[in-house]
Structure prediction request, 231 residues.
Amino acid sequence: MDRDRAWWGLLLIAAGVVFLADRLGWLDAWATIAAWWPLAVVLAGALRLTSRPPDVRGAIVVGSIGLLLLAWRQGLLPDDLWAYAVPVALIAVGAWLVFRRRPVAPPLEGGDLDISVVLGARELRVPAAPFAGGRVSVTLGGVELDLRDAVLGLEGADLHLQATLGGIEVTLPAGWQVEVTGSSLLGGTEDRTLPGPPEAPILRIHTESTLGGVELTTDPRTSATPPPPLR
Prediction:
């Protein structure tokens, strides 16, 4: 099951259950949502651990923020705490945005991608190894995927890109053939790739954007590494 779709699906199911219980007179829907909405932030942090490689630092930061908000909504924190916590948090977040380095994915085992980004940004560089495609999804964030050092086998590969309230930028080397298919809802895909020779391997890109966008670009200054010989 697609992790991002599952995330949004679980949120919709939970909201539906709460409003149904409100209709049945079991609870106050809006009061319940006001008290427990930080659980969605905690879940967003937990989802960072499902990407490969896991974004442990991002999971800790987002999850900690969610737990802090949850404690606040449950009345477990002193009332005057936020007089100091909010400006300190703004300073900390601002410093993190200014000085942080975007995490770069380490070499991929098997050459395939399985990246999910929620509430954040990542820069991914695929090393010169047989690239088997994979999936990249982003929700409320952005991803820059650099394939200029990648090697595409003679059989080609399939790459699935999903952007929800965010964007994905992919940079390709010259010399690959690219086939792009996909769908969008209040979003779109910008294909600025250059055609490769007829005998070149094919990267089949499947895009899905919802209130987001995907941008595909060929770097003409690079050339694709020849695919490994067949054994």
